[in-house]
Structures are given as structure tokens and as C-alpha cells.
Amino acid sequence: MLRATLNVFQKDLFVEWRTGEVVLSTGLFSGLVAVLSSLSFYIDRNSATRVAPGVLWIAIAFAGVLALGRSWARERENDAFVALLMAPIPRAAIYLGKGLAVLLFLLIVEVLLVVVVAVLFSLDLLPILAPLSLLLLLGTMGFVAAGNLFAAMGVRSRARDLLLSIAMFPVITPALLCGVVATRELLGGASFMEISAWLRILGAFDIAFITAGVLLFEPLISD
Questions:
Q1: Which long-range contacts (C-beta less than 8 Å, at least 24 apart) are formed by 42-48?
Q2: How far apart are CA 48 and CA 84, in angstroms?
Q3: Are 109 and 174 in contact (CB under 8 A)?
Q4: Helix, strand, coil: what percent of the chain each, to 5?
Q5: For residues 33 and 18, what is the distance between their CA atoms, to the nearest angstrom?
Q6: Which pLDDT score is estimated for 86?
Q7: Domain ranges, ordered by start, for the chain
Q8: What are the C-alpha distances in Å from 139 to residues 32, 58, 176?
Q9: CA nearest neighbour of 138 among 75, 80, 88, 183
Q10: Running DSSP on this structure, what letter comes out for residue 125?
């Protein structure tokens, strides 16, 4: 399982290294969302700590949908997904390998996005960089774990974009809400212990959907 997961992960990394389409497209899109939102909602530094968390997580959510859709669209081209299913590897390894790849792509985009949001909203994020990084990691893991299932189911569907964008958001809403509220509290001066409850909720969300993904991936993508 581990070897097959790493092989799928390395395959996606190699394709992204040659094309750069996922990181570039999601990075530009999320950056545009952040810039437009800052122009619309930024008033002063007092309002920035309340507005910036929503802007950050909305940009991450839209970037995540775009990254998942583009990552799985590659498998649709030239029947690559059929070749993956015919490979002598556990089906769950496909889910885990592609999930790790999308997670890495989104984390790269989020590093740039955090810098952009900090500049646009005049925020000093260095004092809270460690808890914010953990929060983004847990939130993104849950987002990818849930979204990966919907994206895989949409590979063979003509309405794959509709399935991914509409069906997925109700499922990942708890993770997004936890991320927004915890980020707002961090920017408001809350300590790591004060947001630990939100981190535990995100951790439980991640474990639940990663487990569900490993168990349900094969029956969901089987004919």
C-alpha cells in the first residue's frame, strides 16, 4: 500500500513539474480572489482581523476545488484512469497518492496566499505563524480528504464540475467553519490553548474522512 501510494504521488508530482498547471492556475485564481476581496471589504486595521480570515479560507476553498478538479481531469484524458484501475495496486493507494499530491499543491499555494493576505490587510502574522500553519494544514487535509472522493466519482461523469462544486461544499463546511473561526480568534489575540478545541475538531474531521476515503474509494469508483 505504501509503495503504491508513493508511486501515484510521484507520478502526479512529475506531471505537475512538467506542466505546472495546478499550482499556477490555483495560485493565480486564489490570489485574484484575495485581491478583489481586500478591495471590497478592507476598511481599516481594526476591521482587517475580522475580514481577513473569511477572505483567506474562501480563497483556499475555491483553489481547492480547482486543484482537485484539474488533478483528476488528467486521469480522464487518454483513459489514464482506466489504466490506474487496471494496475496491480490497492485501489485505496490511488486515493491516498492523489490526495497527498493535491495536499502538497494546495500547501504551496497557501504559503503564497498567506503572504498576499498579510500584505493586503496589513497583518503581522509572525507571532501566530506556528498555530496558523497547523490550522491551515489540518483544514486543508480535511478538505482534500473529502473532496478527493467527489473528484474521483466525477471522473467518468459529464457533470463532474457540478458534482465537485455543489455536492462537496456541504460536506466540507464544518472544516471551513472551524478554520475561519479559529483564524479569527488567532488574529484577535487568542492563544494556542484557546483554539485547541477547534484543532481537535479539525483533527477528528481529518481522521474520519481519510478513513472513509480509504474504505469507500473502491466501491464508489467501481462500475
A1: 42/120, 42/121, 45/122, 48/121, 48/122, 48/123
A2: 46
A3: no
A4: 90, 0, 10
A5: 26
A6: 80
A7: 2-221
A8: 21, 12, 7
A9: 183
A10: -
pLDDT lower than 70: segments of the chain: 42-44, 77-79, 154-165, 223
Query: What does the chain come to in residues?
Result: 223
Cell numbers 490555483: residue: 26
Nearest one of 192, 97, 115, 107 to 141, comparing CA atoms:
107
Cell output for 102 = 493535491
Contact by Cβ (8 Å): 120, 38? yes
pTM: 0.89
